[in-house]
């Protein structure tokens, strides 16, 4: 596993603390979000989803993840894009508005 500088800034860990660790999910993903993260990993899903995570200092926040499996040097690796989610905006807001519109205009 490797990480870029932005991930180290986002989570507050040094690169060396994250690389090659099997427990990274336990380090940064909140317990309630682990099942969905593991499901996406195990199924190879490419769908975007949100998860609750925490920084090294304990600060909790919401991220949007999207991943894809690739063959790399004879191994399957998973490349993950992580963005801080803007609570109440983006896809969730659109989905909520769409749901409200369906209820009103049914």
Describe the structure.
40% of the residues lie in helices and 27% in strands. The protein has five helices and three strands, in the order ααααβββα. The protein has helices at residues 5-11, 15-18, 24-28, 34-43, 90-105; strands at residues 49-54, 60-72, 75-84. Residues 96-106 have low confidence and may be disordered.
What descriptive keywords fit this protein?
alpha+beta; Beta-Lactamase; disordered C terminus; globular; 3-stranded antiparallel β-sheet; 106 residues; 40% helix
In short:
About 40% of the residues lie in helices and about 25% in strands.
Reading the helices and strands in chain order gives HHHHEEEH
The 3D shape can be described as globular
Poorly predicted ranges (pLDDT <50, ≥5 residues)? 96-106
Q: What is the structural class? A: alpha+beta
Major sheet = 3 strands, antiparallel
Termini, distance in Å?
Answer: 47 Å
Please tell me the overall pLDDT: 84
How many β-strands, per DSSP?
3
* CATH fold category name: Beta-Lactamase
Identify the CATH homologous superfamily: PAS domain
SSE inventory with pairings:
Elements: H1 5-11, H2 15-18, H3 24-28, H4 34-43, E1 49-54, E2 60-72, E3 75-84, H5 90-105
Antiparallel strand pairs: 1-2, 2-3
